[in-house]
Every structure is written in C-alpha cells, then in structure tokens.
Amino acid sequence: MENKEWEPVWRRIAGTIAECLNEGFNHVKRILVTGAAGQIGSELIVALRQRYGSGNVIACGHRTVPNSEILDSGPFESFDVRDSSAVTAVVVQYDVDTIYHLAGILSATGETRPQRAWDININGLCNVLEAARQHGCAVFFPSSIASFGLSTPQDNTPQETIQRPQSIYGITKVAGELLCDYYHHRFGVDSRGLRFPGLISHETPPGGGTTDYAVEIFYAALTEKKYTCFLRKGTRLDMMYMPDAIRAAIAVMEANPGRLSIRNAFNVTAMSFAPEDLCAEIQKSIPDFIMDYKVDPVRQAIADSWPNNMDDSVAREQWGWQPEYDLPSMTRDMLDKLSRKLKA
Ligand code: SER
C-alpha cells in the first residue's frame, strides 16, 4: 500500500488512542469547525485534532484557505455557511456530532457592510442550528463582549444584563445568542457558547475587529519599535490569550450538561487593560518601544460601548473556567513566540 492509502487508517488509530488517553470520553467525537482559516479556527482545529484524532475534525473554510498544517493533517471541506444544503451535506457525510461554528464577520468589518455581516453571521448560524436539530449535533457559538452596549453596566458586567449593542456585529451576536437559546429550549439542541473578549494570538492575525490593536502592537514592537494605536488612551477592554480561549471552547463543550444553566453564551475573561497598560508591559521587555495614538472614530465608538471588564463567575462555577494567562505572562509569551516566528 502507498503511504497515502494508509493515512485514513492511521487517523482512525490516532483517534482511538486519543480517545483512550483522554478522560471523560463516551465516544470519539466527529467535529465540524467552520471558519477554519480564522484567528480562532486555525488554532482550535490543531487542539481538537490532538485531542480527538485528526480524522475526526473536519475543517471548513470558504473564501480563505487554512494553513498547510491544517490542510495536511485532516479533512478539509470548502463551502459557504449560507448554503444550507452544503452545511447539511457535510454533517451527513462525516456523521458529525459537534459543530464549532466560527465563521463570521468581525465588528469593524461589519460596519463597512452591515447587510453582509447580518447575512453571514445570522444565516450561517441558522443553517448550522438547523443541521444540528435534524442530525442531533451539539453546537458551539462564539458570542462576544460586542453583545453588550452603552446601556449595559460597564464594570463587572453581569452574566444576565441589558444587551442593546450599537454595532451590527453586536446585534448579530445577541440574535445568535437568542437563537442558540431558542434551539435548545424548543428543540433540545445542545447549544453552548462563550462571550469572548478580544483574543490575542501569535498564529493567525484577527481580521477586522476592534480589539485588533492588541495583536498589531506586538508585531510593530518587534519590527519597528513604534506603534500608532487606533483606540484612545484609557479604553479598557476585556482580553484573553488564545491558549486560554482554546481551553475554554473545549471545556465548555465537554462540561456536564446537567450543570449548565446558560445556553446562549457564558461571560469569560482573563484580563482587562487599556492600550497604555499593554504598551507599558511591552516596554518592560523592549524599553525603547514607543506608542502614539491616531483614533479611528468607528472603532473607538464600538470600543466605548463595550464593557471595561466582565463578571465571569457563572462560567467559573458551572464548568470550572479559570484562565492561565494574565497581562504579564501573556505579553512575555507573545514576545517570545512572535520574535522567533518573525526571525524565521
Ligand atoms: N474581537 C472582536 C472584535 O473586535 C470582538 O468579539 O470584533
């Protein structure tokens, strides 16, 4: 047999070994991940494949193709999440039981074409939830700090509170949360979600978000020692390092369903800082790094409507959420990993 012909066999064996090694498994999951090339997808797929076996995690993209690590390590399918029959066909073809639905348009890009943001974010989710209803899948939905608005309490933002967002992205997140709740209560779909804060990672840059400065700043610090921030000094927002976000996304889907009272999305956070705090932390390692400001009014208005810091105690109580990285440890790790990557 050629090496290629052995690949599915090896994948199966790897899946079975992963199943035996990991605690708490009833069966090997068959997981579909939409938005495979995105900031979260590109790292979540690697983690899921390590955990459940490469052949059991189907990466899905549309316009953007994932990196070669993802393409070479397991199945990949290309389709538009707005195409309901394509979503269902892949669920059936791979006998999927869990869907991480990450495909979506972020906050700043959403403001440039609001109708497109609604179309992709809402119709994509509706198709995923329908496929899940028909074929008995669990669904992970990434909500966001963007689901809150100016009338939401900005400090220690509670799990249950006013959600009247100003951005179209935020509106799609609130509607998405409600749809997840609806499909759970009406049809018994095992929907679970997280209200992610800004996510910081060294692998794949975020595409068109309001919190992107917290990633851009690291590239600029290492290459030019200078960064112009598009958010104003004093703009405090919740943030999280990607390894924590990946752990959270896996943990909430593995949590005992009997302990979960929240089916729309849990508040989760790891740190809260303003641009000048991150700048000062970077300066501890790169003392001649400087930052100035050129405020982008669109992204500033969005950021001003988001919480300063969320209360994530419900996630901590119900499924043991606990971040590992704070501002200093995240900054050290980002500088370390990115400096190696940029040299390479
Ligand atoms: N990071 C996202 C954004 O800025 C928020 O969910 O759009």
In words, what does this structure look like?
This protein is 47% helix and 16% strand. The protein has 344 residues and is of the alpha/beta class. The protein has a domain at 104-199 and 242-269 and 309-324: NAD(P)-binding Rossmann-like Domain (Rossmann fold), CATH 3.40.50. It has a 7-stranded parallel β-sheet, with helices on both faces. The longest helix is centred in the middle third of the chain and has 22 residues, at 114-135. The protein starts with a helix and ends with a helix. The relative contact order is 0.12. Mean pLDDT is 93; it is low at 22-26. Serine is lined by residues 106-107, 144-146, 169, 196, 198, 209-211.
Compute the gyration radius: what is it? 20 Å
- Class per helix and strand makeup: alpha/beta
Low-pLDDT sequence parts:
22-26
Strand content: 15-25%
Terminal residue distance: 36 Å
Arithmetic mean pLDDT:
93
Q: Strands of the biggest beta sheet: in what spatial order? A: 3-2-1-4-5-7-11
List the ligand species. Answer: serine
Structure summary, number of beta strands: 14
CATH topology call of the domain at 104-199 and 242-269 and 309-324: Rossmann fold
Number of discrete helical segments: 13
Q: In one word, what is the shape?
A: globular
The CATH class designation of the domain at 104-199 and 242-269 and 309-324 is Alpha Beta
Gist of the model:
The chain is 47% helix and 16% strand. The chain has 344 residues and is an alpha/beta fold.
